[in-house]
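We give the entry.
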Amino acid sequence: MDFFEQLKQSQIMLNDNLESYGDGLFTRKYADKDPRKPREEVFECPISEESKEESRRVELEVLRKRSGNFSQGVDISENMQRIDIELMNPPIEDWNYMPLPSKADMIPLIASIESIGLLQPLILLKQEDGTYTVLSGRSRYLALSYLYNKNPLDRFKYPMCFVLDEKKVDDQFIKALIIDSNFTYRKIPQHIFIRMILERHVILKNSKMFRSESNVARELAAEFNMSESSVYNYLSLSNLSDEVMTLLFEKRISLRVAGAFARVKPDVQVKILNNIDFKDVNFYFKIDYITRDRGVKTEEEVKKRINSANNSVPKDVGFFVKLNSGLLKLFMDKIIEFLKEAVVKYSLAIGKGSVARIFKLKYDKALMKYLAAKNYVDENVLKGLNAKTISDVFKL
């Protein structure tokens, strides 16, 4: 096992051994029928008044820190030290959920630190046990660990760091710091990007810096360089139940399917998951049908919609065809024959509408124009395949 694989395994072991730390903005929760749901046993334990009072005290302290962090800010550079790299822990995965860097990403960084030195300090969080958790600079931490493992010099062992005190900073400030330090330079996978927007939305709302939802959306649009309408589309996913959110973050359902789930209330989403065959959970046409009636509430109503969906097929089907350019003319002729038969069969369904209701062809227009000039395809036939009416089809 090479060094990078050892680091990856140590990250997994660290996260498996750590208890949940601080506020988890998004938790993993599995539906009852989900084959990945772990077996659980619940024990009820009476809570003393002293424990309740301590919980209230802790909650007030968290709110006080949060208010100060976001209203007054935190001077990250206030405490700069050289810290022993052997006292550092990788970021907790629930905090820094960004993809681990690849070896190809690490090579230029390792070479830079080895020849020039560390240009940007790590940001660490000091723990009560005397260790430090890396908040910002995981790639630099991995590069320094690799270099120290290969050549144990002090300049690799004691890098310059900004050290934050866990008694002074709120968990949501830490999460905001991690998002900010990663978003500007990484290629973010879609499921990670969704989580960043939703998590940032929660952080901005809890910071009390913005008076309305529209102001929060405007701030997110500016921060993530997208339109406000796109932001609202992502924010609609905040209506997802924990169980559906888990499926989305584990990439077991598509963004489109998640959007369909978000139409109905979270408790209805859970009823759907607990009654649908789980292998169908990523079939958009089924989830779209089940959630289209937003008045569905009871278990029986959900079961009826699922039974109906099981007997349905998608209205439209698309597939990609790739063929040798020498076969284009023959292929077009066959498509025209098919189209004429199709419009006769579905003439009542088309009526005075567009043929696109039953057939739509997509292709690279510039490439096809080039091939038409080379006599590989008849351009008039190609235009005819975009016929809008039944009479246009029979002119071909």
